[in-house]
Amino acid sequence: MSVGVVCDSEYNSPELEDHLARLKEICRLGVHRVPMRRLPALSDIRAVRAIRQIAGETEAQILHGHGAKGGAYARLAARQMGRDRPRTVYTPHGGSLHYSRLSVAGAAFLTMEQLLLPDTDLFLFVCRFEYDAFCAKIGQPRRAFSIAHNGVRADEIAPVEPDADAADLLFIGELRHLKGVDVLLAAMAALSERPTLSACIVGAGADRAALEARARRLGLSERVQFVGAMPAREAFRKGKLLVVPSRAESLPYIVLEALAAEVPIVASRVGGIPEILDGHEDLMVPAGKVDSLAAAIDDALNDLDRRRLVARRLSQRVAQRFSVDVMVDTISRSYDRLFTQTAAANAGLTAEPSAAVHS
Predict the structure, then answer these.
(1) Which strands, in side-by-side order, build the sheet including 87-91?
(2) How far, CA to CA in Å, does 85 sit from each of 51, 81, 182?
(3) Would you state the pLDDT for residue 83?
(4) What is the rounded distance in angstroms from the CA atom of residue 274 to the CA atom of residue 136?
(5) Sign of CA dihedral 218, 219, 223, 228
(6) Hey, where are the domains in the chain?
(7) What pLDDT shows up at residue 348?
(8) How is domain 154-321 classified at the CATH fold level?
(9) Which of 28, 59, 215, 216 is the most buried if burial means most Cβ atoms within 10 Å?
(10) Which residues of the chain have pLDDT under 50?
């Protein structure tokens, strides 16, 4: 199968550039950069046109959109290509599913999702939670669907030990309201019996300055370090206990990566996290509850050796159920079924997928 990638051109970092350079070596349909905005904007019209042109020039037979924006781009571009359009695959990633119809934005986003249902040939959900949320908020997929859990690579199933000077707590993720860093800071302030409790905040985002100011107001500035973004396995050395205080998630890679590295964890009971931590209720807390998070952190730090043993056992679950090999096999078989069904209905299409562009 020949594959190409379409991704945002507005965000850049040395790590991203290195990753894209490696992708260019294996993506026979190329790596294409197109300006993309998280929220709706007039630039979306140009983005859809660009993706339509890329799909036509590469003769892509599949347009696979990831996330609400990527999914909209892929399906709208295919719609503009007429009867002989590529098959469309959509993987929802939170996005519009995080909204409620009670808000104006939520009503608009979810209605847009409903309008695009007929343009979707296959849905690939990253977890059962996403499928259930999609059915509840948008409707039952009208065509084929599969659940392909996110997966980690085999070389990531290896322990990472914390540095000698590692902080007590570690957060890794985007610095925005949805990720709950403010809840983590409030929980630290609530643990007054731990006056030396420290945290390392790894990540970048629009809310960094506001979170640093919040840490100062809570008297935590000497104990909380903001270090910017870095690769997850490098970041794992900077803390003893990973805290994932998110208000909402789908199936977060950081939880899978942490468990693969045998890093102890406390996480919000949101999205697909319970599918990963099934049977370990003591590792999860209600989202947004400062007192619950503080108590869970305190319990974990009181018995960190046992938490490491739990993480070690969970790393075996990740290796078996949440691996890249399992994910790729599920997606490949779903592609094959899609083309087999299409070939049966349209003799002009091959049953062997030869080209796919992901956006």
Answers:
(1) 31-34, 2-8, 355-358, 62-66, 87-91, 122-125, 144-147
(2) 12, 5, 46
(3) 83
(4) 19
(5) positive
(6) 2-151+323-358, 154-321
(7) 38
(8) Rossmann fold (3.40.50)
(9) 215
(10) 347-355
Please name the residues in contact with 57: beta carbons below 8 A apart, sequence gap of 6 or more: none
CATH topology of domain 2-151+323-358: Rossmann fold (3.40.50)
Residue 22: how many CB atoms within 10 A of its CB?
Answer: 10
Helix axes 304-321, 253-260, angle to 10 degrees: 110
- pLDDT tens profile 224-258: 999 999 999 999 999 999 999 999 999 999 999 99
From the list 299, 322, 332, the residue with the least C-alpha distance to 3 is 332
CB-count burial class (<10 Å; 0-12, 13-18, 19+) for 278? exposed
8 Å CB contact between 358 and 26: no
Assess whether the region 2-151+323-358 and the region 154-321 belong to the same CATH fold: yes
**What type of residue is 336?**
D
Cβ atoms of 74 and 54 closer than 8 Å: no
Q: Using an 8 Å Cβ cutoff, are 295 and 342 in contact?
A: no
CB 111 within 8 A of CB 103: no
The pLDDT, as a whole number, for residue 56 is 94
pLDDT at 343: 57
pLDDT at residue number 93:
83
pLDDT of residue 359: 54
